[in-house]
Amino acid sequence: MEGGPDDFFGTRPGAARTGKVLSLAALIRASGMAGKIPLSCLVAPENENTQPAKTKPVLFKPGATTIFRAVIILFGTTVVAGGYVLYEYYHSPYWDRVGIAPLQPVLFSHRHHAGELRIDCRFCHATVETSAFAGMPTTQTCLGCHSQIFTDTAMLQPVMLSASRGQPLRWHRVTTLPDFVFFNHSIHIAKGVACASCHGSVGDMALTAKGEPVTMRWCLDCHRNPRPRLRPRSEVFAARLPAPAGAMTVPAPTDEIHAGHLTNCSTCHH
């Protein structure tokens, strides 16, 4: 007989269970023991020796897939939005501060003094031709004119207070370079680089703002090809951007510039 004892007595579920039980009953009748063995001994109850079906443990709830998809979409959206915000910030004035005027102790207007009154840059920035640092106007420089005019205006009270206390005016830098960058104003002036080429048209600025980004890329672009930014000596200290290079009729006040070494690291980092 095929199968084991369990198959024979029908303790295993299957389609052949009933047929095997009937075959056993026929065999018992043929042997003359039909009345001696109760039928209940031949057929097991339906629920006897029947193991309940085991269910596999559920690792995730039904809504886990939806939550996972939502997290992936949210993460991707955050990455894309964050990249866009960083891109816009990097290309905005808030990154390189171009066009932003820092607060100063005195509301000084280059438009009025340099643009309208045509006061020379060197009157306030006295060491621009001889030093790496251009110099900032002292209290005494301001009082050279304003000890006689506009002395009682609120705008000039910081100057008057500085003079009475003997404390210098603390100007805030408009263009700031990192400490590892060396910049020399005098060599640029001597080679014919105009003030407005780096600082913008200060003669049009009521409050002095940063005119150019002055990043490493910006500086290297000029060092590779300085000629377009060179001006005649009469235009070096102009308060507004000079005429384009093609309109120059007077040579720039410079010796021959060897641009090859201008891109060396040691030119600015030493």
* Major sheet size, sense and barrel closure: none
* Unreliable residue runs: 1-11, 245-251
The dominant shape is: elongated
Helix content: 25-40%
Structural class estimated from helices and strands: mainly alpha
Question: What fraction of the residues are assigned to beta strands by DSSP?
Answer: under 5%
Distance between the termini: 100 Å
Compute the number of helices.
Answer: 13
Notes on the protein architecture:
This protein is mostly helical. The protein folds into four domains: 5-42, no CATH class; 65-96; 110-135 and 174-268, no CATH class; 137-170, no CATH class. The chain has helices at 5-9, 17-30, 39-42, 64-90, 93-96, 110-116, 121-124, 139-146, 157-165, 185-190, 195-199, 216-224, 265-268. The radius of gyration is 46 Å and the shape is elongated. 13% of the residues are buried.
Quick overview of this protein structure:
The chain is an all-alpha fold and 270 residues long. The protein contains 13 helices and no strands.
How would you summarize the topology of this molecule?
Blueprint: H1 5-9, H2 17-30, H3 39-42, H4 64-90, H5 93-96, H6 110-116, H7 121-124, H8 139-146, H9 157-165, H10 185-190, H11 195-199, H12 216-224, H13 265-268
Please supply descriptive tags for the structure shown above.
39% helix, mainly alpha, disordered N terminus, 13 helices, 270 residues, 4 domains
